[in-house]
């Protein structure tokens, strides 16, 4: 299954508890909780470029499945990580203390970020 496309955030669960677990300030959490975001995924074989635009912040990560890459976390920290593909529709990696699982089913992308026992889920729809 191809991940290619643009996706708009439709809903999110546990944003505030997750961001608090990452030690973000209440001010930043308040600013970010209602901001919509657009994710663009470009897949070329095992190579991916993921760009997430949230308000004025743009986060871009490029990686090749199974190879170490420097990736930026939601807090702006850069970490070395290896992204693995499970089946043909799921990307899994560990961004430092954050586990990230991104799954595509039809026109829906679900991204679950977990730190400790707190999971933050973002559901986006293809636009």
Quick description:
The chain has 127 residues and is mainly beta. Helix content is 11%, strand content 61%.
Task: List key phrases describing it.
Lipocalin, two-stranded antiparallel ribbon, 127 residues
Protein topology:
Blueprint: E1 5-13, H1 15-21, H2 26-32, E2 37-44, E3 47-54, E4 57-64, E5 68-72, E6 78-82, E7 84-86, E8 90-95, E9 98-105, E10 108-115, E11 118-126
Antiparallel strand pairs: 1-2, 1-11, 2-3, 3-4, 5-6, 7-8, 8-9, 9-10, 10-11
Protein name: Fatty acid-binding protein, liver
GO molecular function, one term: fatty acid binding
Subcellular location: Cytoplasm
How are helices and strands ordered from N to C? Answer: EHHEEEEEEEEEE
* DSSP E strands, number: 11
CATH H-level superfamily title: Calycin beta-barrel core domain
CATH-defined architecture:
Beta Barrel
Determine the structural class based on helices, strands and strand pairing: mainly beta
Strand order of the largest sheet: 4-3-2-1-11-10-9-8-7
Mean pLDDT: 91
Poorly predicted regions: none
Helix content: 10-25%
Please tell me the total number of domains.
1
CATH class: Mainly Beta
């Amino acid at each position: 299954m191809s991940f290619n496309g643009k996706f708009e955030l439709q809903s999110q669960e546990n944003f505030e508890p997750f961001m608090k677990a990452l030690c973000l300030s209440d001010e930043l959490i308040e600013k970010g909780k209602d901001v919509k975001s657009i994710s663009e995924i470009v897949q070329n074989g095992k190579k991916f470029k993921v760009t997430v635009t949230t308000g004025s912040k743009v986060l871009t990560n490029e990686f090749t499945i199974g190879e170490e890459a420097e990736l930026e976390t939601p807090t702006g920290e850069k970490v070395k990580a290896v992204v693995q593909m499970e089946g043909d529709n799921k990307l899994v990696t560990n961004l430092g203390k954050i586990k990230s699982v991104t799954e595509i089913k039809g026109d829906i992308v679900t991204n679950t970020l977990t730190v400790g026992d707190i999971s933050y889920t973002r559901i986006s729809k293809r636009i």
